[in-house]
């Protein structure tokens, strides 16, 4: 295969030019970061698991009519995706208080919220991805009012889907973040779910024990991150029930 041109490298993924115009290849790394990359490590097998889990979620969303950038999984670590213009916002949906919300508002972690709360953060690592309001978003032209209406609708549809999928396998969807991209069909613009959906971008707790099955395992030194992600993949049927934690890429094709 010809050497691909790297477009961008982030904390957990590398983007390459795709084989056709309007496509990109998304490569999942084993790097784990927390606290705005102040804590770093390489977790063997993490990228393989996130690739498969993100494929599972994106495919499920497409089946219920939620548009995404995902086209197909290429191999253990790579996906072919539609190229899009990323809106510079992290869209966070919270069902239970946790993490920064608990710290900011003094709400005990695990408290169920009266309804799903959608928050927005400006995507800028140097600034620590600060929380912003719709007023900031409109004033600085990051998204129009119509965009914001569409983003809110997409975020809540994703929440409904993920909550149901997780509930069915005994997992509580505490919160998650997504990114939204713009694609153009001629003069017509539409918004799609982009980036990834994986335990890296969700808080997932076992409904009976409260055990954390997401990146908080790494953030808070609660155990082995690959074991936690493998458990999520097993429950969802992405991995066989008897699968061992991934330490070699040959375990998933």
UniProtKB/TrEMBL annotation:
The source's superkingdom equals Bacteria
Q: Give the EC number.
A: 6.3.2.6
Pfam families hit by this protein: SAICAR_synt
Q: Which organism is it from?
A: Pseudosulfitobacter pseudonitzschiae
Q: Which GO terms describe its cellular component?
A: cytosol
Annotated metabolic or biological route of this protein: Purine metabolism; IMP biosynthesis via de novo pathway; 5-amino-1-(5-phospho-D-ribosyl)imidazole-4-carboxamide from 5-amino-1-(5-phospho-D-ribosyl)imidazole-4-carboxylate: step 1/2
What is the name of the protein in this document?
A: Phosphoribosylaminoimidazole-succinocarboxamide synthase
CDD domains, sorted: SAICAR_synt_PurC
